[in-house]
Design brief:
Helices cover 47% and strands 15% of the residues. It has 20 helices and 16 strands. Helix 16 crosses helix 18. The two termini are 47 Å apart. The chain binds phosphoenolpyruvate (PEP) and magnesium ion. The site of magnesium ion has 5 residues, from helix 17.
Amino acid sequence: MITLTGKSVFGGVEIGKILFYKRNSRQIRRWHVEDTENEVIRFENAKAEAIVQLKGLYEKAMKDVGEENALIFEIHQMMLEDLDYLESIIHIIKNQQVNAEYAVATTADNFVAMFVAMDDAYMQGRATDVKDVSERILNILAGAGGTIFSLDEPTIIAADDLVPSETVQLDKEKVLGFATMYGSSNSHTAILARTMNIPAIIGLGEELREEYDGAYAVIDGFDGKIYIDPDEETLKLMKEKQAIDREKKLLLQELKGKKNVTRSGQKIHIYANIGNASDVGLALQNDAGGIGLFRSEFLYLENNTFPTEDEQFQVYKTVAENMAGKKVIIRTLDIGADKQATYFNLPHEENPALGYRAIRICLTQTDVFKTQLRALLRASAYGQIAIMFPMITSVWEVRRIKDILEEVRAELRTDGIPYNEELEIGLMIETPAAVMISRELAKEVDFFSVGTNDLTQYTLAIDRQNPKLDDFYDPHHPAVLAMIQMVADSIHAEGKWIGICGELGADLEMTETFLKMGIDELSVSPAMILSVRKKVRETE
Ligand code: PEP
Ligand code: MG
């Protein structure tokens, strides 16, 4: 048995096989598909998308570097029309009843081997091109609702670290837990583990080796330990620990339907943080009073091109309808920094957390922003949607947002499309600047929601993604708490309300403090709702 120790970011005990995700050498898994016709269509669509991309690259290269250098993209397009190549892929899918990824990768390997074996230097050179075009298709297949790997059985995912564009592709039903070599407690992998209510350990370092791929293991998120090939005694102990944890979770279920009220009668709303429409099930199962933060950027990360107005409208409408009249606060696109979607073509930045992100992108690329606002306003006719805006620093930004929102409303009125005239708008308080001018900001909107993850980062000047700084990253810092009190006072002075949607909202050590501050709503990962309710009910 091998025992590895890291840092726990979410508790729980799970037992299963490890699957090691290797980023640089793409891992192509083979899985069985029943509907091979559909799988061929999946491949054809990816191929069509690859041709569009290559055409774009060809035109760009013609302008930037001239015809000679642009030619390669034309050759790649031709390769994607090569009958031998295409027939091989389709034949593998149909004959072996397997996924398109496997068929593309196998065909690429076969063709590369064939070209390399030829005498002709020109033909040998084509091997690289086959690899290149095949890689492009594999990327598209992975982005277009595909998965990093299809999991046949529940699995513990091990990796160096996972970025949001990778976690969105996971087959979440089958993930037992996360174990990563690096990563920080405030990363989105940690947030995802909390949403999914599964154990997660980060910072296992180089000891977490690729060779453990396929090994049987126990992940103990409480103690931050992973046991590879556990001995009988450990297995027995861990099974007991798992049973006790499950029992506790069952007991929490008894709090369903109960009010979020302190012993002295103070009430607070407890809402859920979600990343996509399918998380609504978790929110409802855990008795969420509403959705306090829908991170809409995950919709963009799941796609390999901008989601259209209609696609977004359908998602927002579904969430609003499923929440059946309960409040659903949707945050507009918060892309940039650690959340990167390649098709945005964001430039490399020295300081991405201080860079071109969130509302700054929306106020610059107003067509992208307006598409999202139209979808949100249209969906507001189907439930109690509220919109909030991330990373605000200035009053002019809010006025500009309101002007754009008004333009969109006017367009919808002209088109005779219904929307909720009473729709609430709010601001995320994530920067010290927003705190300092919170009295001014409070006059502009209906509510505030404190994003403590970023507020801590920007107040303490500590990169939330840097694992070396985990010990310095302290959301309990008096400066952060004073800021929360200040914004609560500002918004209450205007007779409006305030929530907290950062991870600190679920910190049970802080519940009493937040109640004293007069916070009106806490939005937490679905798995934490009943624990926070318990804490509120035990508080004087
Ligand atoms: C926050 O910053 O606290 C927040 C809720 O937003 P995110 O974690 O998505 O940046
Ligand atoms: Mg934030």
